[in-house]
């Protein structure tokens, strides 16, 4: 619907009340409606689900159409990310937000900083989804508000060309609202608890929910030790719970990401129930580390299972957890992925211990033998030492090719001494093209970094503190922050505008006309940053 048709529509709504709604202007109503396109979280979820589905189809047609996101722990961070993307690339297409349970635990819990173990308040996750979308909607309102002001100025100046250009920009305006992939951890309880929490996610605006196959009350960060998985039927029940939540709320094309931590998880809390040989429970149990026992030599309290006519004793730890056989992680991952996709999941997440395209692609190839269009969301994790990993990959590749590697110490490849070397340059090039190459060779549809803005906040704050409290004093802020904001065109250099001051002034004028007391007058110091 065009700007003009919005004004006409508003005028029709006002017309029956022309004698009582004095001062309600159709154009002002049209502007406010355009600035607030999404009225509920469900509106957002339905809109963004369609975007994700279209992007998934585009990737299936050509893996060059992969998508990306960065993890954001505050609405402002998500807003500034999307404003930056629109500024530099002209479109938000293919760029999402990621909501990391790790960052919610570390930064948003009322308990204070917590490890990634599902100890934070589960309601804090849907609260952050709502916050992110509040800030993205405000970014829409801000940008459109500036266009409206420019339009008024062009009309007042009688500039027909610029007026036409601005009307076109308003009609073609692209929202900052994009899909969020939201981390529900292991569901924070049983399947019913997962369903109830998933509804909160969706009502807040999430079109995509990521859930993992760890035990809810034993959940660990995917890059830490001590991970414990659940039998497939338990995990599939939670996937179905999320699907029912989407469908109950009318988001039928909502997206579920099934995450498996089996590659690094050597433990399970329970032995799967088996109905018949070879079923999914029997396959899960087949990975248990067992020893054959004689019925005459049983220990008091031993837990036993039968397998192919033999009596087997699973290896049980003092924690009452059962151990898987070493070397079975990849097979368990592949089985997890296939069963998840066969039971309602749309995308996969395989948590790995290193970013290695060959390793990831090998598993995806096995999955695609059963599910041809299987595709991944992949964590380009800050928990990986990317520099060391890729330098070692180049080193190993060179050795396999018979190249001379005597100038390099594999154990010390992180050293700055190797930064400008041929090996260091080749490793950096592999890092640069990792997302593109992994999308083409390893079935990765979506690349994300879980907690980059956690690290950028720490790094930038450290640099500012070092300079401001040191010899540079105020120059430490002015030179490294404000001057760069101005020169790089960072929107929030005009922080009053970013916080909504100009939007508020527009509203005051709608409400009170010439009597409006506005903040953006001649004495507003933000005018020092005028272009």
UniProtKB/TrEMBL annotation:
Reactions catalysed according to its record: D-threo-isocitrate = glyoxylate + succinate
Q: From the record, what ranges are coiled-coil?
A: none
CDD domains in the record: ICL_PEPM (cd00377)
Signal peptide positions on this chain: none
What positions constitute the catalytic site?
221 (proton acceptor)
Q: Where does Mg(2+) bind?
A: 183
* GO molecular function terms noted in the UniProt entry: isocitrate lyase activity; metal ion binding
One Pfam short name: ICL
Organism's domain of life? Bacteria
Q: Which UniProt keywords apply?
A: Lyase, Magnesium, Metal-binding
Listed cofactors? Mg(2+)
GO biological processes: carboxylic acid metabolic process
Q: What is this protein called?
A: Isocitrate lyase
- Species of provenance: Novosphingobium aromaticivorans (strain ATCC 700278 / DSM 12444 / CCUG 56034 / CIP 105152 / NBRC 16084 / F199)
């Amino acid at each position: 619907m065009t700007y003009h048709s919005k004004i006409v529509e508003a005028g029709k709504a006002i017309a029956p009340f022309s004698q009582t709604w004095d001062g309600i202007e159709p154009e002002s109503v049209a502007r406010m409606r355009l600035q607030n396109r999404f009225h509920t979280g469900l509106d957002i979820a339905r809109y963004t689900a369609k975007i994700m589905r279209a992007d998934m189809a585009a990737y299936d047609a050509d893996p060059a159409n992969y998508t990306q996101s960065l993890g954001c722990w505050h609405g402002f961070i998500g807003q500034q990310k999307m404003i930056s993307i629109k500024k530099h690339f002209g479109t938000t297409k293919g760029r999402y937000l990621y909501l990391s349970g790790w960052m919610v635990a570390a930064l948003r819990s009322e308990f204070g900083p917590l490890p990634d173990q599902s100890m934070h308040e589960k309601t804090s996750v849907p609260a952050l989804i709502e916050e992110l979308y509040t800030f993205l909607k405000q970014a829409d309102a801000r940008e459109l508000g500036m266009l409206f002001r420019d339009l008024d100025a062009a009309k007042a100046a009688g500039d027909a060309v610029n007026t036409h250009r601005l009307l076109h920009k308003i009609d073609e305006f692209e929202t900052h609202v994009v899909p969020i992939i939201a981390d529900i951890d292991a569901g924070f309880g049983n399947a019913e608890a997962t369903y109830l929490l998933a509804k909160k996610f969706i009502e807040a605006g999430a079109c995509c929910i990521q859930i993992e196959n760890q035990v809810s009350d034993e959940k660990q960060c995917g890059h830490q030790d001590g991970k414990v998985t659940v039998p497939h039927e338990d995990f599939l029940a939670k996937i179905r719970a999320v699907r029912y939540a989407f469908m109950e709320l009318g988001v039928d094309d909502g997206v579920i990401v099934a995450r498996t931590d089996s590659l690094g998880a050597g433990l399970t809390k329970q032995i799967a129930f088996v109905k018949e040989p070879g079923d999914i429970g029997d396959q899960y149990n087949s990975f248990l580390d067992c020893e054959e026992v004689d019925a005459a030599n049983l220990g008091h309290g031993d837990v036993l299972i039968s397998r192919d006519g033999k009596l087997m004793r699973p290896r049980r730890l003092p924690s009452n957890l059962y151990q898987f056989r070493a070397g079975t992680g990849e097979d368990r991952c592949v089985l997890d992925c296939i069963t998840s996709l066969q039971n309602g999941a749309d995308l996969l997440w395989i948590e790995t211990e290193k970013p290695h395209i060959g390793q990831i692609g090998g598993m995806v190839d096995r999955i695609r033998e059963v599910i041809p269009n299987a595709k991944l969301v992949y964590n380009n994790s800050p928990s990986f030492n990317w520099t060391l990993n890729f330098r070692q990959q180049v080193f190993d590749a060179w050795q396999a090719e018979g190249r001379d590697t005597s100038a390099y110490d594999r154990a010390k490849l992180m050293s700055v001494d190797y930064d400008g070397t041929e090996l260091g340059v080749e490793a950096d090039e592999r890092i640069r093209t990792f997302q593109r190459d992994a999308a083409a060779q390893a079935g990765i549809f979506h690349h994300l970094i879980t907690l980059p803005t956690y690290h950028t906040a720490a790094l930038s704050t450290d640099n500012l503190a070092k300079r401001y409290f040191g010899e540079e004093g105020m120059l430490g802020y002015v030179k490294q922050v404000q001057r760069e904001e101005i020169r790089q065109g960072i929107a929030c250099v005009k922080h009053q505008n970013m916080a909504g001051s100009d939007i508020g002034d527009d509203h005051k004028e709608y409400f009170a006309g010439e009597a409006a007391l506005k903040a953006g007058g001649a004495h507003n110091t933000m005018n020092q940053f005028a272009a």
